[in-house]
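WARN retry 2 of 3 for item q-0093 after timeout on previous attempt; input resubmitted unchanged.
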Amino acid sequence: MIGNDLVDLHCASIESNWERKGFLDKLFTATEKAHIHSGADPFLQVWKYWTMKEAAYKIYSRMTGIRNFAPPKLCCTPGEHHYGTVLTDGLKFYTCTDTTDNYIHTTAALHSGQLADIRIEIIHYLGEMPAYASKNPACVSHHGQYLALIY
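OK item q-0093 returned
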C-alpha cells in the first residue's frame, strides 16, 4: 500500500495560522515541535511533518479500517535527504518528501523499497479540479491549486 499528501504552500500561508496558540500542540509531538522551532524554516517544517502524517495515515486507515486521525499519535522522524519515517501503533511507514517553491508533497509506503517505485503525477490547475478517476490512482491528494496522484 502507498499513500500521499500535498500542501499548496501559497494557500497554506494564507489560510492557516500555524503560529497561533495551541495549533502545534494539537498536531505534533514534543520532539516534532522542538524540531520545528529550531529549524531554519519552521513554516516548511510544519507542512513537511503534516504531509508525512497524512500520507502515512492514508495507508494506516486502509489497512486497519480505523478512521480516527490523531496527528500526535503519528510520530515523524526525519531521515537523510528527503526521507523519513512515521510510527504509529507499532507500524512503521517510510516517507519521501519533495519540496518546491509551490508545494510540499510526501509519499508513504510500508516498505522503504517501495518508495522508488511510486509514480507521481502533480497537476497544477486553476478553477475546477480536473477529472482523474479514469487514471486509477492508488492514492489522491489535493490542496489549493494542486492535485497529486500516485500509482
